[in-house]
Amino acid sequence: MSQVKIRNMEEFASVSGISRPTVSKYFNDPDSVRPSTRAKIEAALETYEYRPNIFAVNQNRKQTKTVGILVPYLADPVFAEFARNIEQRCVELGYRPTIFSSHGVQQTENDILDNLLALKPAGALLAPLGRESDVAAVRAFCDEVPTVLFDSNIADTGLAFCGMDNPQFTRLIVEYLCRSGQPPCFFEMKTPANPNARKRRQSYLEAMRTLGFEPQVFSVAGEGWHFEEIGRQGGHKVLTSGEMRTNTVLCSNDRLAIGFITACYELGMSVGRAEGCAIRVAGQDDHPFSRYTCPPLTTIAQDYDTVSKHAVATLFRAIEGEEFPYEVNLFEGKLVMRDSA
Amino acid sequence: MSQVKIRNMEEFASVSGISRPTVSKYFNDPDSVRPSTRAKIEAALETYEYRPNIFAVNQNRKQTKTVGILVPYLADPVFAEFARNIEQRCVELGYRPTIFSSHGVQQTENDILDNLLALKPAGALLAPLGRESDVAAVRAFCDEVPTVLFDSNIADTGLAFCGMDNPQFTRLIVEYLCRSGQPPCFFEMKTPANPNARKRRQSYLEAMRTLGFEPQVFSVAGEGWHFEEIGRQGGHKVLTSGEMRTNTVLCSNDRLAIGFITACYELGMSVGRAEGCAIRVAGQDDHPFSRYTCPPLTTIAQDYDTVSKHAVATLFRAIEGEEFPYEVNLFEGKLVMRDSA
DNA sequence: ATAATTTCTTTACGCGCGATAATTTATTAG
DNA sequence: CTAATAAATTATCGCGCGTAAAGAAATTAT
C-alpha cells in the first residue's frame, strides 16, 4: 500500500494508467470494461487507497445505491429482526441500506419519508405504521421511489406487499386450541396500530363460527407500542371481570400475550396446557422472546426470512427494470407448540 | 404552494428575490442573514418547494450534518433503546443520525466504520462490539471522526466514554441480595462479548469479599448474542449440577437472567423472594422485558437516558469546537426491586 | 492481411452548491 | 445628514464525478 494519497478519480486514473472516464465506467460496473483494463485498475486499487467520493457520485447519477428501510418501531424485536434480515440481503446485492424507525409517530414517519426522498434511493422497503400512517404521504413517496411494503399493508400502494396470511395464521391456532381444549376467547387492543390486528380479529370470528363455537372478544384500552404493559393491565381487567367463558385466551400478538401471562402470574393463575393449570394463553408472531416466557408461549411463527426474502426480491426485480402488476404476497405461518397452550 | 418546480438554489434565489450566496448562507444558518431577508426567503419557502440538494451540500462542505450511530446488536432491545434515544437527541440538534448495527460480527463493524468514514460525518457515537472489536480499526476511525464511545469501552479511544459504573452496579445488588437472603452466586458467560461482563464478575468477587462471603462463579459456555438461550442451557447445567451452594443467583445481565428463569421453570423450580420459593434470580441492566418475566425480574436499572444524554452532549461539545481531555463518565444504576429476588 | 467491431482516450461540459473577493446597497451611529 | 458599519450582490472559481462526442487504438471476424 503506497503512502501517496489519492485525492480524486483523476489522480487514481493516472496512477492506474487508465483514463478517467474508463475508470468511472469501471466503478459503475466492473464488467463493463475489458478484462485487461479491469485488471490494471484492480492492481492499482491494491496499491493505492481510493474510493469514489460518494457524494459526487450520488449527485451525478440519477439513481443511487441507497435502499431505505423503514419500520414502525425498531425497539420491537420483531421489527429489529426484519430490519436486520432485509439489511443483510441488500448489502449482499451491493446496495447501501439505511434503517429508519418511525417510533410509532406519524410525523416521524412522514419526516423520514421526506428525508429519504432527498437521498434519491434506488428503492425502499417500508413497514408502515398502519392506522397511524398518513396514507397520502406514503402513496406520494411510493410514486417517486420504487417501494415494496411489508408487514402492514396499505392497499394498492407501492409495487407490492409482502406479509402474513392473517386468516391462515389465526385459523390454524384457533383450530389447534379448539381441538386441544376449550375454544379460545380473543384478547386484543381496542384501537390497534397495526392492520394485521384487525384482520386477526376478523379471522378469529370466522374460524370460531366455522367450527361452531361462540366467539368472545376482549378489546382492551391502550394506545401506543407498549404492548406488554397493555397486555398486562388489560389482562388484569379481563381476568378479574369474571366475564371469561373459557379457560383459553388467544392474544392478537405475542407481545400482548407476554403481558397477559405476567398478569396471570400476578393474579396467581397458573398458565399452561398441563393438567391443573388454570388458563391457557397463546400468541401470534413467534416473537424472539416467546421461547423464554414462563411457560414458553405457544404461538404461530411468522417466517421473517421468507417475507424479507420475497420483499427484497420483488423490489430488485423492479429496480432492475422489470415491470409487473401490483402484487400481494401472503405467507403462511407455522404452529409452534410450546407449553402455554 | 406554486406548481413551479424549483430545480436548484439559483432558481429558488431568483423567485425569493435574494441572491444565491445569501440564500446559501441562510440554509447554512438562518440567523446569519438579516431578519428582513430571512423573512423573504421563508416566504418563498412557503410558496415554492425547495430543499438544497443534500449531495451537493455534503460534497462542498467540509463537515456534513451526518452523525453515525453504531450499536453491536440492534435486535437487543437494550441497544435499540440506546439507538432510539441517541437518534432523537441528534435530530433535535439539527443533525441527521444514521443507525448501524454490527450484528455481533467484527467484519461488519469494520465495514460499517469504513462506509461511515466515507460519509464524512460530523461525529459518531459508537458502542463497540467489545471483545470482538478490531481495536486498531476503531482507533483509526476515531482519529478521523470525532467519536464518543458508549456502553462498551475501549481504553483511551475516541473523545470520551459514557457508560455504566459496573462496580457500583454489582456492589449495589450484591449488597441487597446479601441482606435480604442468602449471598448470591454469579452466573455469566465464559467468554462474554462485552467488557462490562468482565468488570461485573470482578466487582461481584470484590463485593462478596468485602461483605465477608465466599463467592461462587458459574461461567457457562456459549458464543454470540443469543444470551437468553445461553442462559437457559447454562441454567439447566448449573441447576442440575448440584454445585450451587446458595439459593440466590446474580446473572451478569438481564438477558441471561431471562433464560435462567426459563430454565428454572422447565426444572419445576419456583423463582422469587416469596416464602416457599426455591430460588432467587437477579439480573443487571433493566432490560425492557424484565418487567414482564414471571416473576418480574429484580435488577439494576441502567439509566439509558442519562448515558445517551451525556454521550450526545459530549460529542457536540467537540463538534462545536471545544477541546477537552479524554473523559470517562460512569453512571450509577438504581436498584429495581421486583419479585424474582 | 484487411475490414468490422469493440474499447479506450481525449476533450469538454454539466451537476448543484460552497466559498471568496470586489463592489454595491442598506442600516446604524454620531 | 454624513460617516461608519453591516449586509447583500455580482462574478467567478472549485469540488469530484457522470456523461457525451469524436477520434485513436486494440481486438475480433472475415
Automatic annotation (TrEMBL), chains A, B:
Q: Which domain of life is it from?
A: Bacteria
Q: Which GO terms describe its molecular function?
A: DNA-binding transcription factor activity; transcription cis-regulatory region binding
Q: Where do the HTH cro/C1-type domain residues begin and end? A: 9-51
- Ranges for domain HTH lacI-type: 7-61
Q: Does the keyword field hold Signal?
A: no
Please provide an example of a Pfam family that matches this protein in its UniProt record.
Answer: LacI
Q: Which UniProt keywords apply?
A: DNA-binding, Repressor, Transcription, Transcription regulation
Q: Do the record's keywords include Repressor?
A: yes
SUPFAM superfamilies hit by this protein: lambda repressor-like DNA-binding domains, Periplasmic binding protein-like I
Report what the protein is called. Answer: DNA-binding LacI/PurR family transcriptional regulator
Its lineage reads:
Bacteria, Pseudomonadati, Pseudomonadota, Alphaproteobacteria, Rhodobacterales
